[in-house]
Design brief:
Elements: H1 16-46, H2 48-59, E1 60-65, E2 72-73, E3 79-91, H3 99-110, H4 114-121, E4 128-129, H5 136-142, E5 148-158, H6 165-168, E6 170-172, E7 175-177, H7 179-183, H8 185-188, E8 193-199, E9 205-214, E10 221-224, H9 228-245, E11 249-256, E12 261-269, H10 277-280, H11 290-299, E13 308-310, E14 315-318, E15 321-324, E16 331-333, H12 334-339, H13 343-349, H14 355-364, H15 393-398, H16 407-418, E17 422-424, E18 429-433, E19 439-442, E20 447-450, H17 454-470, E21 484-494, E22 498-512, E23 519-526, H18 534-537, H19 539-551, H20 559-565, H21 582-590, E24 610-611, H22 620-629, E25 633-636, E26 642-646, E27 652-653, E28 658-663
Parallel strand pairs: 2-10, 25-28
Antiparallel strand pairs: 1-8, 2-3, 3-4, 3-5, 6-7, 8-9, 10-18, 11-12, 11-23, 13-16, 14-15, 17-20, 18-19, 21-22, 22-23, 24-27, 26-28
Helix pairs in contact: 3-4, 3-5, 9-19, 11-14, 11-17, 19-22, 20-21
Amino acid sequence: MSLDLRPGPSRRVPDATVLLRCRIVFGIWGLAAAGLFLSAARLQVADVDRWRDLASRQHRIETRMPAERGSIVDRGGVPLALSHETVRIGIAPRELADRGRTAALLGEALQIPVAEAERLAFSEGRWVMVPGWFPPSAGEALSGHRGVYVQRELSRFYTQDAVGRGLLGAVIDRSGAGGIEQQFETHLRGSLGTGLVARDSRGGAIPGEAWEILAPRAGGSVVLAIDAAVQEIVVEALREAVESTQSVGGDVIVTDPRTGEILAMASLRNGEAGRLGGITTSYEPGSTLKPFTVAALLREQKATFDDSVDTGRGSWTFAGRTINDVSTVGRASLRDVLVVSSNVGVAKLAQRLTPGEQYETLRDFGFGVRSGILLPGEASGRLRRPEDWSGQSPASLAIGYEISVTPLQMAMAYGAIANGGVLMQPVLVREIRDSDGRTTRTFPPRPVRRVVSRQVAREITDVLVSVVEEGTGTRARLGSFAVAGKSGTSRAYARDVGYASRAYLPSFVAFFPANDPQILVVVKLERPRGAYYGGSTAAPVTRATMEAILAVREPPVDRGAFVALARPRPGTVEATDPVGSLASFALRVATPRRLPTPSTVVERGSHGEFALPVLTGQSGRAAARRLHALGLEVLWESPGPVAGTEPAAGTPVVAGDTVRLVADPAHHSGSQAVPRGAVDE
């Protein structure tokens, strides 16, 4: 064996360049490590508050908390619109300590089936929302239970279906839309609060994880001039009229002509009550405008009621247009011309007026301009200036054509005649109150202008009483009270097709008692089938409305004044008045002393008991009025003939008891026919 004695490879010593490079690399690593350390120190110590705040903002968002919306009430404080608090329930199943116990608690507090409660509690999801909304009491029962979150919500609740959405409006996306809700949005909505809401990883709000920073302030309330009981009467009467006449729709407005207050306002179109056509839709009024033509003649001293005019055979051609009457009256006084509603007579007498006088009188009565009612969407109607008239315009305007008005304008104009000649601004809102119930603003009656003298208004009223007593408005008579009224029937006009064939707009306006009016009613129907004159279709609605208002337990009228103004008819009871007579009805309610009552009214016993009268065969409305006059509450399901009562007739009852009217199932309402000899426009 030989040994390899050759020397191995020698180790090379690193030169200075390599060593320098290594030092540089290690230096860079050291600086990087130091930078990371300093950054971490800055994040963890110096900037900890800023980054904590940023993280909080990412997981929690600031929100605006809605305030409880203020209420809307009628003139007597009856709530019409309220904010209704509800709660929604969210569950975090993974946070539940005892799912079985939570399921039992959910079932008991929310009144949901056990199976549904268990499904929610044993869910594998992170969040589960319980379907539906629940009363605040349910939220209180679940509040504080781990894993169950309560979220408060506010919704709008309308208590009186009769007060339609056209008048009150609605709340959409927490803002008022239409009606009073929109008009008084800033007052009703209150002041928003501020809060924080926790967000999950997807950015969604976590139910129940909310904190209040600044509490919201509830909105104030709005007090209307509307009377809820009268409103219900008006809606029911209008619906009956539309159904019985097979009309497309209609409008009714009830006012107090002394103050301009709107006591009720209802519109119906195609079975729906959502619109408010009484202020938003104008129409050609026809003969209900004639009293204002007469007012112009009297105001300008161009005629008196004793002046006569020859109507010939009921036909007159003027400026290429032929005007016709329903019947021939020959030579007649201005008074008789208005009573029988002669188109020819009024048009001829109107030629005494200059265009300026005719226009100014109509404008002074409020036609052609908005009335200023506190509702959005009011129409101004149409009244052209004289320079835009044609040769036919003076005659057309005299009888209610070439002009469009709203039912509200008509109510205010007739109110000026009723109250002695002063046009009033309509009052829909009486006052507004803050969230503490303090009145912050009132809306007192506001006269706009004097249109005619008290003497002229009185003379026109007397003639309008004759219209109801002996003219075209006999179906609006109230036996014991003088009613002033006027009927109208105009042809329906469509912009694209002109005047439609066999399409009419009957209307009637009345106020009573005529000597000291407290109630004014405007009724307009749209395109009835069959009978279409205002005196036969709209006048009965006016009468039914006035009767029903008198029968309300607390009507918005002075019954004592009614008693003083009632026309005495000793020893007689009118067959048209189911209560016996409206005068005796008012006396029984207004005075505490015992008075002789008509035979149709059942005498009370010595202990306040009296036998329930027989009502079989009477209409539902008549029976209800009679029972209300006796101090009884009424459940009334149908306006048709009464088949019986519960309790039965003859049963002892006392004032305050409730009686149910059983309707005759065989009753079918039909359209009303035009009475023979009726003279209308």
